[in-house]
Design brief:
It is built from eleven helices and eight strands. It is an alpha/beta fold. It comes from Geomonas oryzisoli.
């Protein structure tokens, strides 16, 4: 191998290590546009019963930050529970068994890989081990994938009585013009007024509404808990996301990574309380 090729491979290896291992050390506090360090950010969100920690699913730095928040809340003596987009309700018995330490890693890993098959186990494993070692409940938030797929293909109105029975009774996946506009920000290539695009938007709303109901129902039954919600940035966003679908006057805080169309200039207090500042 030539010296030039060796040097090139070394540079790419070092760059890959930096990109995979970079830590997030600062966030933009949206209300006053101040950059603060992560401990200050955590102090600023710790007073709410629901914390939305948005992510890009394949970003290891986001999962590292989520773990830091969980560790800090636990150290504060909070009764923490983790709500995860990555699981459907059918997996709840396995999640309960894992948090209680009653299931081996190999078996739980299969549940995870069935539930969230496109993202490697290692992205979330430290969070899972923290939950198991501290007996922290994990709550499955997502809507059944078969129902979501049916809505995305044919619309909510096409669901059968059997499919509707899999959902909370008051979920209707309604979409407003404002929600459609927010969806177009994420999916500019879809037809702006097509029926197919409306079906995709209804599927997104269905997931938002089901996750919101799972959060609200859990906290109604466990009012002393603090739920850390781990979900994609689009779901965690205040505009067009799960927070807007929560029932009652539940207080929440939102932390987002920069996800299209949000950046330091465009993010508003309606979107998030903090926007993570990434090195790359």
């Amino acid at each position: 191998m030539s010296i030039h090729r060796t040097a090139t491979l070394l540079i790419f290896s070092l760059l890959a290590a930096l990109l995979c291992g970079c830590s997030i050390t600062q966030a933009l506090r949206v209300r006053d546009r101040e950059r603060v360090d992560v401990p200050t950010m955590i102090a600023g969100i710790s007073d709410a019963p629901v914390l939305f920690l948005g992510e890009r699913h394949d970003a290891s730095a986001h999962h590292e930050l989520q773990l830091r928040v969980l560790e800090a809340l636990k150290a504060q003596g909070k009764e923490v529970v983790i709500g995860m987009e990555m699981f459907e309700q059918v997996s709840q018995p396995a999640l309960d068994a894992w948090s209680a330490g009653r299931v081996p890693e190999s078996a739980f890993r299969k549940v995870y890989e069935w539930s969230w098959r496109h993202i490697p186990w290692g992205m979330y494993s430290d969070i899972f081990f923290f939950a198991r070692d501290n007996h922290i409940p994990i709550v499955a938030l997502n809507a059944p994938r078969g129902v979501v797929q049916a809505v995305a293909q044919r619309g909510f109105a096409s669901l059968t009585p059997a499919q509707l029975a899999e959902l909370p009774p008051d979920v209707d996946a309604r979409v407003t013009d404002q929600f459609l506009d927010s969806m177009r920000e994420y999916s500019p290539t879809h037809g702006r007024n097509s029926e197919g695009f409306r079906h995709i938007a209804e599927a997104q709303m269905l997931r938002n509404m089901v996750m919101a109901r799972r959060i609200s129902d859990y906290l109604s039954a466990h009012p002393k808990k603090v739920m850390v919600v781990i979900a994609g940035g689009g779901h965690a966003r205040g505009v067009g996301g799960v927070p807007a679908e929560l029932r009652g006057n539940v207080a929440y805080r939102i932390v987002l990574p920069p996800v299209p169309p949000l950046d330091e200039e465009s993010v508003t207090v309606q979107d998030a309380d903090y926007l993570l500042i990434e090195r790359f």
